[in-house]
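Service request form, structural biology core

Requester: graduate student, group of Dr. S.
Request type: structure prediction, single chain
Budget code: on file
Notes: please return the result as structure tokens.

Sequence provided:
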Amino acid sequence: MPDIFDEVNEDLRAERAQAAFRRYGWAGAAALVLILAGTAGYVWWREQQNAAAEAAASRFLAAQKLAAPRALGQLPPKEADAEFAAIAASGPPGYRVLARLQLAALEWQRGETAKAVADWQAVSADASAPSLLRDFATLARAQHQLDSADPASLKAEILPIASGGSRWRPMAEQTMAMLDIRLGKQEDARAILKALSADPLASQNMREMAADALLALGDEGSGHKG
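Core staff response, request fulfilled:
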């Protein structure tokens, strides 16, 4: 009987850890890619300095404005999806990648999960896309499939991001910990979270998330790192 209770307690701690992760959610990363997209679009325009790129920049920014949230719980109009799909199909190379990422996010919001996953996979596999955006697409798909895809396969896909010098390394480590919890590897998850909670390269938000998840897993010695 004590073994059964221990297993139940471990499951409850894992659920609380998952809840701690989701308190911060993917929204921060989604907001970040919007900023990144706008910045990358401007840089692309500066680099190209031609009429086609200028037109693409204007069209992309107009599509972003169309897709901007209007009210809590209200989805952007379908016209935003159509605009990003058109840019992804025929825009300049840089904008095609950015538009496909934006389109995937909108599709996921609408419940069109298969389309969203396909778009993230397309960006991940696009050798002409910047590695920064390929890594982001890989992480986005993994984060959105945490509860549905095979966790071992997802871990294999994001391991190079978590162990390399990518700008998204802290986010990849967070995702690895979440997948370890799904796999029942609580000690592996704790090790990742302890390192992440003290990582000066991780955002304060990310460090707090890691500390909260550690507490949820029963690590009483953890705390928020300022």
